[in-house]
Amino acid sequence: AQRRTVDLSATDSMDGTPTGKGDDGKKEKTEDEAVQLRRTIGLLPAMCLIIGTVVGSGIFIAPKGVLANSGGSVGLSLLVWVLCGVLSLLGAMCYAELGTTFTKSGGHYIYLLETLGPLPAFLRLWIEGLFIRPAVSCTVALAFGRYVVEPFFTPCAAPIELIKLVSLLGLTFVVAINCWSVTLASRTQVALTFLKMFALVLIIVPGGIALAKGKTKSFQNGFEVDSSTLDMLPLAFYNGLYAYGGWFYLNYITEEVRNPNRNLPLAIICSIVTVTVCYVLVNVAYFTAMTPAELLLSEAVAVTFANRALHGMASVVPFLVALSCLGALNGGIFGSPRMLLVGAREGHWPTIFSMIHIRRRTPLPAVLILYPLMVLMLVTGDIYQLINFVSFSRWLFIALATLGMILHRYRFPDYVRPFKVPVAVAVTFTVVCFFIVGLSLYSDPWNTGKSCALTLSGIPVYYVTVYRYRLPRSLRRVFGESGLQILLEVTQQEVQTY
Predict the structure, then answer these.
(1) Reduced to 3 states, what is the DSSP secondary structure of residue 346?
(2) Which CATH class name applies to 41-491?
(3) In this structure, what DSSP letter does residue 357 have?
(4) CB within 8 A of 387, min separation 6: which ones?
(5) What is the model's pTM?
(6) Tens digits of per-residue pLDDT, 412-428?
(7) Domain locations in the chain?
(8) Which of 44, 168, 279, 474 pairs with 381 at a CA distance of 20 to 30 A?
(9) Per-residue three-class SS string for 433-475
(10) How far apart are CA 391 and CA 245, in angstroms?
(11) Positive or negative CA dihedral for 369, 372, 374, 376?
């Protein structure tokens, strides 16, 4: 078969303008040699990226938060888990349409840019790069550290300093993998996904056996709630939706997915259905071994379950849960830098972050900028406060993206959409998201208010750095094509991948 070639002489000037080609003697590169992010993600790696990112620390942390904000009601908490799965499926279908309509990587950012304009897109980029991704990674890393350290100190409490140290080591390991090789990061994700599914099966099967034996005490009078519970219900949904968070990560890397018109919708929908079934069964299993009060007192729910239901394999579960958290951490750090890369490519982020390593073919600058921010947030912050803090901005922009999809359909009815969801699905999902976001300001005004304020803080930054470029020359040189580019050995992509 013929090898396609890329003529680099046509864009060899510093500003990317054409300089002519053919007779200047410059060497043509094959497509394999050109610096680019390649389409290496097939259907199985795509599903593993979604499942591996969704099934992380959430199912081992969030049950406590869901139950607490459901007034201790087992039935209501299980209903929240089901509804969160359904809502995530509706959202996943909307994002399958967005991902096949707009073929660039970047997820939420690129969809907001294409449908609602540059300001909402920049705000999504701003809050993702500086707050959401570091906070989410910090939460998952802390869960990883807790499940690694906790078994060695049972029944005593593990030192928080040691937990944070182990969390930092896990975070550093994942960042290093994603800086080193896209293929290695992808294969690591596949391996960790199979291990974490084994961990879920290890919880579900004993729970099913216990249920068959009649251990249903926790489910009796399961829907007894008082009126005050309804005020906290949005926070229960936030905790549940946090556990489902990650179904949109494949949209971050659309340009690296093989046959995205087929694989992207198929991977997204199949993954979310699988995760929803597993999550509900895992929570049912938890309640066969623990009362609601005992679950609320547990610092590590899966460990408590293992000690009671898996006597011979109790020591294995914390290890598997830690690997599950590591997989979620890897999936997030694999996907999010692509949003920063695309934002820089569109002129909304410093140019250096649109570059990739000339040999490793990884978005090295975009990955590295997240590391110090994640470490900083790892040192401070409570897990459940971080969940509420992150969820407000994340779900606000998801709602805006699907609203933009509806408006785009209305304005451009003839636009090619390889995958199209019923308009009722898009409208339902968008309305529910806005409803939850609005109620959260009432339920937890402090954390959601901070998240809202930090999101809005990007408005003056946008007008200074993008709308009317006013940055000093010295700052431009730091993040431009200068010594930093040489130091990191990075360059712009030599092939258009969208």
Answers:
(1) coil
(2) mainly alpha
(3) E
(4) 61, 62, 65, 139, 238, 239, 242
(5) 0.82
(6) 998 999 999 999 999 99
(7) 1-34, 41-491
(8) 279
(9) HHHHHHHHHHHCHHHHHHHHHHHHCHHHHHHHHHHCCCCCHHH
(10) 9
(11) negative
